[in-house]
Design brief:
single chain, mainly alpha, three-stranded antiparallel beta sheet, globular, binds acetyl coenzyme *A
Length: 431
Amino acid sequence: MSKDAFTLTSPDGKSTTLPVRKGTLGPDVVDIGQLYKEQGVFTYDPGFVATGSCKSDITFIDGDEGVLLYRGYPVEQLAAHSSFIEVAYLLLYGQLPTKAQLDAFDTSIRTHTMLNEGMLRFFNGFRYDAHPMAMLSAVVGSMSAYYHDTLDINDPGTHDIFTHRILAKLPTIAAAAHKLTSGQPFVYPRNDLNYTQNLLHMFFAVPAEPYQINEIAAQALDLLFILHADHEQNCSTSTVRMAGSSGANPYSAIAAGIAALWGPAHGGANEAVLRMLEEIGDTKNIPKFVARAKDKSDSFRLMGFGHRVYKNFDPRAKIIREMCHKVLAQMGRRTDTPMFDLALALEEVALKDDYFIEKNLYPNVDFYSGIIYKALGIPTSMFTVMFAIGRTVGWVAHWREMITDPNLRISRPRQLYTGPKNRDYVQLNKR
Ligand code: ACO
């Protein structure tokens, strides 16, 4: 075996050489593309635990070391010095922008924030208690009906208008969902405000009185969006790539990504964390819930703990934990934010527990984000929507990378079939 190839030998002695592909960082990968042709077998890896589905230049994660890089830049540096709009530019175009490039990008996003009035009327069709993630997915999917003609997936020249529209309109759609749920009138965007200020304005302004934007709230949201912006081939991003690989309209592919994000094992965990903390209610109940999380006969898990890739710590969780302190200190603790003290107490117990230590289960990005959202007055059902707003830029960056790859092929995994063998149809009266 050379370092550049693996040799796989079947039980009957037939050998196949599998080339090794090397990235710029991270483990090498074994290219099994010719395996079926040469050996007549597929590989089996449910949940894609050891399978790379594509090559990508966008984001790098080292789960053992707790490293997260966007286009090579450590997320800690971006969180400390950058803004969400600048990070969005970086993820999409591969480089940090010049001042002129950033201004032009920012202006373009600010001037695409309004929704077609017809799209706004969709919201009248939803029940007052519809989950905002369902509304977000449906309305983003419907953008494919509005903007089909201005997008040709084979013409990269049209990709920017899709990109700017979806980034600009996501907060407006999210705010419309929020206003429907809260029974308040829809508030139109203000293009003089930056991305997060505008989001707060559309969420919380009412016609009856002036609304003062809280700068700490805007900064906290900006930070959360940076930290959620991309995370390589996670479930929702892989969904966007898979849907998009057929040549589907990218607004629909993003709608599929939103649906995937909603699940509690993925982006839905931030909502689940808050509901779990509410259920725990008091520090005296923590041991009972930790015991339940360890009990294999109980389906309860500590939400916000564990990650498929991070087995040491989640670097995003560290940054958010600090922001939690800042938000709660500067905005004043509302009556419902002792939640944070409960979360800290739960974290302390879990991190000292052998079960969590042995299985490398640490707080992930979602453990603290919900506490910040709650302190900002964002309702629990909107938490995953906030995640989706930040992650959209990652989904779009991956879609653009995939669709312009000259070697793009439709995503089409194989399976291990375990159903019945061939059998003959039996007439209804003979069954
Ligand atoms: N609480 C209790 N036990 C857990 C937890 C948890 N939160 N997470 C994992 N485990 C246990 C599992 O029961 C399993 O035990 P076993 O080996 O004895 O069977 C072991 O740890 C490994 O867990 P898997 O589910 O096999 O790990 P996987 O990588 O497939 O799942 C996941 C990762 C989905 C994040 C999981 O840790 C989980 O469900 N966490 C809670 C939900 C959550 O916080 N999700 C957000 C993830 S971050 C994001 O998407 C933004």
